Amino acid sequence: MTTKEQNYELPDDYSWDHTNPVYNLLSKLLYMIVWVVSFCYCRFCHVSIKNRQVLKPYNNQGYFLYGNHTQPVGDVLTPRHESPFKSVYTLAGTANLGIPILGPMLTMGGAIIVPDSWRKLREFDRVVKKRIDQKHAIMIYPEAHVWPYYTKIRPFSDSAFHYPVQQQAPSFCVTTTYQKRRFGSKPRRTVYIDGPFLPKTGLNKKEQQEQLHQDIYNCMVARSKSSTYEYIKYKKKGEEV
Fold first, then answer.
1. Which residues are listed as membrane-spanning (predicted)?
2. How many angstroms separate the CA atoms of 164 and 142, rounded?
């Protein structure tokens, strides 16, 4: 899926860390609204979350969540309900800021925009570290692009695990699966949370990234087998269904 502003670029004066008290107050209010909407969304849109208790021992520290990217709206709302006792920040692409009306409000609701240039990485890195130090959660969709209702796990890069290794913070995988409902055409969603996954001591940083990548990818692939209903069939161009 793409948007009209797919090539949106961050302005040179873009800031990831806001100190304006009015902005921060509005941000807290908006986050509360998003939390209520996420609760209603999961309750009334047939979303159930399993194994959430694995997060409880880590309520007093920051951690990372990794999920398969299959819901344009649900992947924004569901993480707030997966970790209800924490503020959950979601890494998002710059194209999201170009969405009319909602785009500029995303950062107030918890989005951390991934920079489009290496020159802006330093401040971005500092904000990611700050959120983890503040004992918040950061949601990452390493597949990058939304494939609605896709039931398998797509390949992703070792680089997605740079931050858990840099911060030596725990990671969890969040796998959305699909099952047929008794009534209605759209499937029921069951979200499984697994972990923690920790960087192994004795490995260098690159090896730790590879290890986390493999562990989380394998877990998500295993959980994806809980999908029993394919609402949208995907095929390669020119391939018969």
1. 29-49
2. 13
User: In whole angstroms, what is the distance from residue 228 CA to residue 233 CA?
Assistant: 13
Residue 170 lies in a domain: yes
Q: What integer pLDDT is reported at residue 241 of this predicted model?
A: 58
The alpha-helical segments, DSSP class H, found in the chain are 21-44, 74-82, 121-133, 162-167, 205-224
Q: Which residue has the tokens 């609402």?
A: 231
pLDDT in tens, 190-215: 999 999 999 999 999 999 999 999 99
* Domain presence at residue 232: no
Give the integer Cα–Cα distance in Å for 164 and 91: 14
pLDDT band at 140 (very low <50, low <70, confident <90, very high): very high
Q: Structural domain tally of the chain?
A: 1
Predicted structure pTM score: 0.90
- The CATH number covering residue 28 comes to 3.40.1130.10
| 12 inside domain | no
Residue 32 has pLDDT above 60, yes or no: yes
What is d(CA 43, CA 41) in angstroms, rounded to the nearest whole number?
5
pLDDT of residue 14: 77
Contact criterion met (CB below 8 Å) for 177 and 227: yes
- Segments forming the whole domain that contains residue 96: 21-224
Q: Whose CA is closest to 189, among 41, 20, 28?
A: 41
